[in-house]
Amino acid sequence: MQEILEEIARRQPCYVELRYHEHVTSSLMAQKGRIDQAGTSRHQGVGVRALVNGSWGFSSTSNLERGAIESAIGRAVEAARELARSQKKKIPEFSPMALSRADYEEPGYKELRAISIEDKIARVVETEQKLLKESALIHTAVVRYNEIFEHKAIATSDGAACSRRLVRPEFRTAAFTGSGSEQQVAGRGVGVTGGWQCLFHHPSAANMVGETAREAVELLKAGHPEGGVKTVILEPALVGLLCHEAVGHTVEADFVQSGSVAKGRLGTRVASDLVTLCDSGIPPYSGGPGGYLPFDDEGVPCRTTTIIENGTLKSYLHNRESAAIMGAEPRGNARAWNYADEPIIRMTNTYMLPGTMALEDIIASTADGLLVTGAGGGQADASGEFMFSASSAFEIKQGKLGRRLREVTLSGVAFDVLQTVDAVSREFRWDMGSGYCGKGQPAKVDAGGPYIRCRLMVGGRQEG
Description:
This protein is an alpha+beta fold. It contains 11 helices and 23 strands. The chain has helices at about 1-10, 65-85, 110-115, 115-130, 195-200, 210-220, 235-250, 255, 320-325, 360-365, 415-420; strands at about 15-30, 35-50, 55-60, 105, 140-155, 160-180, 180-190, 230-235, 275-280, 305-310, 310-315, 335, 345, 350, 370-380, 385-395, 400-415, 425, 430, 435-440, 440-445, 445-450, 450-460.
């Protein structure tokens, strides 16, 4: 398929981008000692974009024959021409650049294919039964396994000719507890780009069963935090959530052009000197991050974008179009979920660089605060204002960890909160690989970082 796409793209009189995509997803869920849900879906086809007279046209086909692909190109070109007749704002020509010609296969791709469905089912059911037996207070345990096998081949008329085979497995546990009228739930999740061994050797996979059970049981008797602006230590999952939701989306160039809080602020201070924040398809930290990419869906090789450097806003995230408009350099942030989706600007792996302090020293130097753990749901907007939930927190009094608290909410404005960061740990962990980013279409991403200490609004309620 790669050779066919390359040959067709080379003959086009205008900019044309061809993207073959095979996407196979399988999932298992165990409950009550058996597999409750199982399924597989497969999507395969070619997406086509054409840039004519400063306008885009897009088409796609599930027919992989040469004639069908060429017909899809014709439809995309005609759509671009039609739009160009009325579109006043034209897309400038792309600057020449070295596009990818790599043929990449994730080392875990064959390993995971070689593991039988029986072995995967056994692991899921055994984990569910082990979790259920951790405590008599656990009345229901749920374990889920999901895997995405992805094969892409990309060719553009200006020189990209690359392919990749990636696999992204995920594993999740959940325990539901009850005592009288009180009910609680706790969960853990891990997701990577890599094989079976990569998944279960990830730091977040260590003692998933024990940690899930312990939290679910302890939450039954946990108190609630007092509301107010507080000193908090955020674990890597919550740092990742802050980096992704409250900062990362505001610096995606399409959102910047629409007026996000980051617009016009390059070169200005938006965080403390301790904060350096990046996005990279091929980050320097190991662990098989869930958003790993050697090149993006425009054939641009992935490199690191330093978004914030020592507190100063340095860069936005671009595709080739926004880079041409804003005079920047694309670094691999154009992504499409399926062959019938157009590539748009997306994050890959977004993270804060670690510092020099040990977590235990950050805790010991905190007179009054919270250690917040377990990233939950949340939302953020173009202003950088966010509200997140966390599964639990631990009181810190005079440098000592105290009781567990529950139903914790965190809110603030991202750049204001980052200005208050006064401690950054040397420990680093990816911790959002089991999640998905939504922006009109899903995307597998990851995020993480060190533990950080900062000030933000904690939601709580009066005890008693």
